[in-house]
Amino acid sequence: RDLTDISLLESFIHLRYVDLTENKLQDLSPLKSLTHLLWLKVDSNLLTSAYMQELPYLQVISFVHNRIKDMEGITHPRLANLNLKGNKIQTALGLSHGQLYSLQILELRENKLESTAGLNLPKLKNLYLAQNIIRSLEGLEELGQLTSLHLRDNQLETLDGFSSSMKCLQYLNLRSNRISSLQEVAKLQVLPTLQALVLLDNPCCDEPNYRLEVLVLLPHLQRLDKDLVEQDERAEANELRQKRQEEK
Question: Which Gene Ontology cellular component terms are annotated (predicted)?
Fold first, then answer.
């Protein structure tokens, strides 16, 4: 509706759900009086900052397709789902770790992130980082409850940065990066619960017997790329692994 001013909302202090999508808002400060707010959607506006005064019950915020450049000032203690897809964020270092201890889902697709540094959010379960320009993985050891990590369409050449403390990670999507060697894939052996891995459209997929070699390295995988791991594939990989160990 081309709204630029939402000061009228200040008097509606009991609002729980607010959708301000597709306006021309640059300022959300009138929302500070909505202390009962649970759910806020401000997609497709002109916001350059995600800063808001802390709201005690806010659980879901969507800032999709704005002009936000950093993650400063997001401090809502019960926030569980934060969507910042399609902004201009270059770093995650502005997150207030001590005040986002309830955050479980973080959506950062289509931004300008070059690194994962700053994402030490202990309760995070789902992290979406596809379509950035990430070249290095840093700070992931803090993500002890993460179950799925999406890193498709980035610029990763190495897989340093994964940690055995990521003891819940089951799904990892690395499609369309620059991983050229299966030696890099071997670094995923530190992930104790990894069950599904997507490596399509990386140079390493062109190596001979690519699928078999990945299963030799990661025997616990249930799914590789789009396909479930078949019993005969697993048996062949186990045999090859055992043979190589004996040769050593």
Answer: 9+2 motile cilium; cytoplasm
Tens-place pLDDT, residues 37-79: 999 999 999 999 999 999 999 999 999 999 999 999 999 999 9
Measured distance CA(148)–CA(164) in Å, rounded: 15
Q: Which string of DSSP letters, residue by residue, matches 137-181?
A: --SGGG-TT--EEE--SS-----TT--TT-TT--EEE--SS----
3-state secondary structure of 11: helix
What order of strands is seen across the sheet that includes strand 81-83? 17-19, 39-41, 60-62, 81-83, 105-107, 126-128, 148-150, 171-173, 196-198, 223-224, 227-228
Residue 248 DSSP SS3: coil
Using the 8-state DSSP alphabet, how is residue 104 labeled?
A: -
Q: Is the dihedral of CA 63, 67, 69, 73 positive or negative?
A: negative
Q: What is the pLDDT of residues 95-150, one digit of tens each?
A: 877 789 899 999 999 999 999 999 989 899 999 999 999 999 999 999 999 999 99
Amino acid sitting at position 189: Q
- Please list the residues that pair with 156 across neighbouring strands: none
